[in-house]
Amino acid sequence: MTETKGAWSLLVGMTLLWLGVAWDGQWHVDVGPDTFFTAPHLMFYAGSGLIGLTSLAVVLTTTRRGETPADGIVHITRFRAPVAFLVSGLGAAGHLVYGATDLWWHTVYGFDILELTPSHIGLQLAMQTESAGVALAFLTLRARPAGRWGLAAAGALFMASAEISFDGEILGVPVSLLGVGGATAWVIGLVVGAGLGWRWLAATGAAFLALLGATMFFPPFATRVYADAIDLRLRDNAVNESIVGTAMPYLLPLIFAFAAGAVWLARRRNLLPRWAMLLVGAVAAPAVAVQSALFGRSAEGTPLFPLFLTVLAGAGLCWFGWQNAALLRAPRPEAAR
What we know:
Blueprint: H1 3-30, H2 39-65, E1 73-76, E2 79-82, H3 83-109, H4 118-137, H5 145-165, E3 169-170, E4 173-174, H6 175-193, H7 198-229, H8 252-268, H9 273-295, H10 304-328
Helix pairs in contact: 1-2, 1-4, 1-5, 1-7, 2-3, 3-4, 4-5, 5-6, 5-7, 6-9, 6-10, 7-8, 8-9, 9-10
């Protein structure tokens, strides 16, 4: 399998994974307990399985071609793996391990009453790793419009995944504030580092808006249909609206529009990219965090100290995403096949 086909296969798998996880969260809220072999579980495990099999196929194809580390390939014993597919493959492997842990959890304890179990935490972190691999896979395809739209969609999925991948607190700081803001800053740095113009930052915001629409519609609809199909009733206090969708940073397209304008202005003023990324990340990340704190699930806690940390995390991760793209953006002839 070529890297072009592999990237699109990863994107399909990540979309299934994201919508399946959102559906699973909706099921816990509107219906309640579940077992391992429910439709939401099967949907997101199918997505993760597609990511894992695709990553393996690309690694085997690359190994058979005998590409060298100088071609941007990681050399692991006899295997040669493109960095993006190594990342997505490791995430899928982690998903498999934690999936087995989830099966064990259900076998020992039966139903899940809450979302935040040890196995679910592992699944969330694996999902974030997989979504990072999908975004990196599209960097080498940026020469074509379809590849650039793929990068925008992958960036939207990465930011959405961060909303549910980081829960809890560290030293009283809601981790979700750092996670969502930092994820946004990383995607901004990745898009700019890929050599794309400000328009593609705006396109990434538009892709997130489309993903938000799907997340708002699909989980409640699928929950009602599936509950009727297996003769279960919704809870009397069922919310009947997407619990994951309403927690997503819905002002993010506006924040990306701001980032696009800032990047355009920085280029006109010939500001060094390093400083531009630090400044944009330092503003964009806390802006996302403030919306999450005011309207999302992260309203608890004292906002001032987390906001300061989010400024630092946003600046650093925006610069880091720019560096990631700089390392991986040189396309190889094989990537365009």
